[in-house]
């Protein structure tokens, strides 16, 4: 099973996990990190490092909210500082379809790279401009 950390600005990570659990239950390994105004970058990095090392790094995925944002940058720094034999997968632009797909497909025998490719695809497919879809229908 894949271990997932969702790391975002504000309380978004916590809310994403609560929402995912509403849909698929709690039989998973997900945790969250919330970067708030009260945390410095150093405190955030320390908390994230502890969260990452709270369990084995094997099959660890960290989803962040904004590519190039402070949370993503902290995770990138940690990723780049790891020894070669330790790593995790870092994906930005988290949304609910990505999380659900990752959890539901992690039970397959597919490689984690294949699971993440599918999750990113489903995350993109979940973005629709509904007005365009219903144009001409109404």
Automatic annotation (TrEMBL):
UniProt keyword Lipid biosynthesis, yes or no: no
Domain of life of the organism encoding this protein: Bacteria
Location of the PTS EIIA type-4 domain: 1-127
InterPro entries according to UniProt: Bacterial_PTS_sugar_comp (IPR051471), PTS_EIIA_man-typ (IPR004701), PTS_EIIA_man-typ_sf (IPR036662)
A Gene Ontology BP annotation from the UniProt entry: phosphoenolpyruvate-dependent sugar phosphotransferase system
GO molecular function: transferase activity
A GO cellular-component term linked to this record: membrane
Gene3D superfamilies in alphabetical order: Phosphotransferase system, mannose-type IIA component
Keyword set, alphabetical order: Transferase
Name recorded for this polypeptide: PTS EIIA type-4 domain-containing protein
Organism: Niallia circulans (Bacillus circulans)
């Amino acid at each position: 099973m894949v271990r997932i950390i969702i790391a975002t600005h504000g309380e978004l990570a916590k809310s994403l996990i609560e929402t995912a659990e509403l849909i698929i239950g709690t039989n998973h390994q997900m945790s969250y990190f919330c970067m708030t105004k009260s945390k410095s970058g150093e405190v955030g990095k320390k908390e994230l490092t502890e969260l990452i090392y709270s369990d084995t790094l094997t099959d660890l995925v960290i989803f962040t909210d904004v590519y190039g944002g402070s949370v993503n940058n902290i995770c990138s720094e940690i990723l780049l500082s790891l020894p070669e034999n330790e790593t995790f997968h870092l994906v930005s632009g988290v949304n609910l379809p990505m999380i659900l797909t990752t959890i539901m497909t992690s039970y397959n025998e597919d490689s984690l790279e294949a699971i993440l490719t599918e999750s990113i695809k489903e995350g993109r497919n979940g973005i629709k401009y509904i007005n365009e879809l219903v144009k001409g229908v109404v």
